[in-house]
Amino acid sequence: AALKHKTGSYMLVVNTHLVYGNTTSAVKQREYEAGRLPYFLRNTLRKLNATHGHVTDWTKAPVVVLGDFNTHKSRSGDDSQQILENMGWHDSYDQARRLSGQHRNTANPDFSTTPVIGGVWGDHVDKVLVKPRRTVVYGWANVGKMKNGKYVAPLGSDHHPLVVRLGLA
Question: What is the β-pairing status of strands 99-100 and 162-168?
């Protein structure tokens, strides 16, 4: 989505969903998809510049990538996250000045009302990726609605809402 801020500046927000699975072939595919993501983004910005360059210089517009990356910090043998970091894309969780609900995983494949507690903070598959040199992350929050330590049912998805507040340059 191309978004226009009230100041008149534009940004690009891209939703992605990397392949799911723990098999060797699924991990290889996910690593491949992670490695291709920056090229896809550059091509998309170039195309936007060619078709809508009169609006802004899209090649210089800030970009935020979010979605289900199906990998996390504790997943051994899966370099998807490291591949993205090596290309300059970092999890906003690691950049956030404030965290909320960080111990509860945003994924909930069993639609359980009991929170899945991660052994490592930031051990979540849902991410908002940013370029730290262009972004200040003010807050990261897992905002799945809770009451008495349980998620409120019925659950609308097998993932809980993630809210990230950021400033882009």
Answer: unpaired
Q: Which residue has the tokens 């009230």?
A: 6
Distant-in-sequence, close-in-space partners of 148: CB < 8 Å, separation ≥ 6 = none
Write out the two tokens for 13.
């927000």
Is this model's pTM higher than 0.70 or not? yes
Q: Which domains, ranges and CATH numbers included, belong to the chain? A: 2-168 (3.60.10.10)
Report the C-alpha gap between 36 and 31 in whole angstroms: 9
Dump pLDDT digits (tens) for 25-36.
999 999 999 999
pLDDT for position 121: 72
Query: Which residue from 109, 102, 14 is spatially nearest to 66, judged by alpha carbons?
Result: 14
